[in-house]
Amino acid sequence: MARLRVGAVACPAGVNAVDGNLAAAASWASRAAGEGLDLLLFPELSLTGYHTAGREAAPLAAGHAACRRMGELAAEHRLVLAAGLAWREGSAKYIAHGLWLPDGGFHLYKKTHLGQRERREYAAGDDLPVFALPQVTAGIQLCLEQHFPEIAQTLALKGAQLILSPHATPRLTAADRRESWHISLRARAYDNCVYILAANQVGDNGQGTVYHGGALLVGPTGAVLAEDFSGREAMIAGEIDLDQVAGARTTPQGMCRRFYARERRPELYRWEK
Q: Which of 28, 136, 167, 205 is deepest in the core (most CB within 10 A)?
């Protein structure tokens, strides 16, 4: 059976405190390797911080020392590291999430659906890719994007077995975050017969905004496999069985009964304003 161990970290991310954020990532990566994980997810903008009140995080670019260091950590600990950063390409800035692979490979997802404040400072990505990682095919939905069911469905139809859902949301308490994710992320996992792994920032970002954490792993039946909503720094870990995804998508009465997305009728889902 195709199994791997994945984890997610609820951790602080100081705005423009790249060195400190990177040191924290290194510590968590070492712990994850010690627990035999194959993949570790960090929150949205975990390397550069999520700015507030117009004091933006300076974007990183290809070849930045922090990106090189993340690659070194992935190779050293033999695991995939998924971390968030403000990213620059030419004159455009993006909210992005990077995937550093043990063999030196690197993938980048640029957030496609931006909040109102984000749209004033960042460009939107224009692709919903899936990435062939060691042992698993994964897609990414960033924070606000969990509220667009079409994103998770598109990633699943493209072959994603695991959807990574990094967040940087201060609005909800830990208890309210748990309730929100149990509604939305469990539904996305169930409807699309996919695993979903989520992590939110926690603590003060250095600009007075406080995040309340949260980490969650959901299986393709919508079952909760691991979670932490203590409101503190934490790492969760769990095993995912990709045969469950395959079974749910190929058998009429699989783990999710059926992969209903294949029977959709997109010609009916259009309307005029």
A: 167
54 band by pLDDT with thresholds 50, 70 and 90: low
> Which domains are delineated in the chain?
3-268 (3.60.110.10)
DSSP string, 28-54: HHHHHHHTT-SEEE--TTTTT----TT
Helix axes 65-77, 18-34, angle to 10 degrees: 10
Round to whole Å and give the CA distance between 5 and 8. 11
CB 166 within 8 A of CB 198: yes
Using alpha carbons, select from 144, 77, 148 the residue that is nearest to residue 116.
144
Q: Record the tokens describing residue 17, joined without a space.
A: 């405190």
d(CA 56, CA 40) in angstroms, rounded, equals 26
Contact 26, 73 (CB under 8 A): yes
Task: Say which DSSP state 62 is in.
Answer: T
Q: Give me 242's structure tokens.
A: 């990709």
Give the span between the Cα atoms of 240 and 162, in whole angstroms: 9
Distance CA 231, CA 233 (A): 7
Strands 130-133 and 215-218: unpaired
- Dist CA 138 CA 156 (whole Å): 9
Measured CA to CA, the distance from residue 48 to residue 21 in angstroms comes to: 7
Per-state percent for the chain, helix, strand, coil, to nearest 5: 30, 30, 40
Report pLDDT digits (tens) over 57-70: 667 777 789 999 99
**Residue given tokens 């069911």 in the structure block:** 149
Give CA–CA dist 242/137, Å, rounded: 10
